[in-house]
């Protein structure tokens, strides 16, 4: 019998809680890696396949590393990585949006709703924000903005 066939996930000197902690840390490490490499489609596959609690992860300090730096660069990067013009990319973006919206990552919500062209979510996100009201007034008064909202 090879030593590999005797390998088990649970060791007698490690309790169930420790096993769970090790698995959770491994899942978090992988999620952090995928976010860090901007592999958003792989992240969605990972979360769906493992039932990893992505929303809970985003609430942790490590999850907060998913914050975006700037709108234009994020829009370009996420748009390229997710390919929302394809059905699967569109669905992946919607999946990420639901999780990121739940935890209040507004910069992600703005980028993803822009890519998905979900104006109603943008309006809801900025409801009560005076800067958005000013933009909306500008758009309603300018013919060049009629296609945006």
UniProtKB/TrEMBL annotation:
GO BP terms: namely:
intracellular protein transport; retrograde transport, endosome to Golgi
- Report the GO terms under cellular component: cytosol; Golgi membrane; Ric1-Rgp1 guanyl-nucleotide exchange factor complex
What domain of life does the native source organism fall in?
Eukaryota
Protein name stated in the entry: Uncharacterized protein
Q: Which organism is it from?
A: Ceratodon purpureus
